[in-house]
Amino acid sequence: MLASLGLILLCQLIGEAVVRGLGLPLPGPVLGLLLLLIVLLARDRFALLARGPLRDGGIETASKGLLVHLSLLFVPAGVGVVQELDLLASHGIAIVVVLALSVVVTLLATVLTFRLVSRLLRQQDAR
Predict the structure, then answer these.
(1) 57 & 15 share domain
(2) Residues 113 and 94 both lie in one domain
(3) Where are the alpha helices (DSSP H) in the chain?
(4) What are the transmembrane regions (predicted)?
């Protein structure tokens, strides 16, 4: 399991290094995840690569172990919110209004997009 966790973290490190080195507008862990996906696809395609942490579902087991404790990753964000309670108290109403408006705008954009696509599909079926 340690080798599998090491491989996951290595992919994340490589992704972070590439993003910072090239100045890409992409989070490093996302690029690392894409790299891990490529490694896993290569493992499934070529049996020769299925050694070490890549064999016997080691990465899958390690990632399931991480997902079980995913809620622990929200603790730092919660602590950050608690540390800024005075800021939230002074701007709380504005934050609530902006959040409510963003939800409404998102819902309207979704409905309008759905209606547009639906209309285009009906026109295409009519031809």
Answers:
(1) yes
(2) yes
(3) 2-22, 28-45, 58-68, 75-83, 85-126
(4) 31-50, 62-81, 93-117
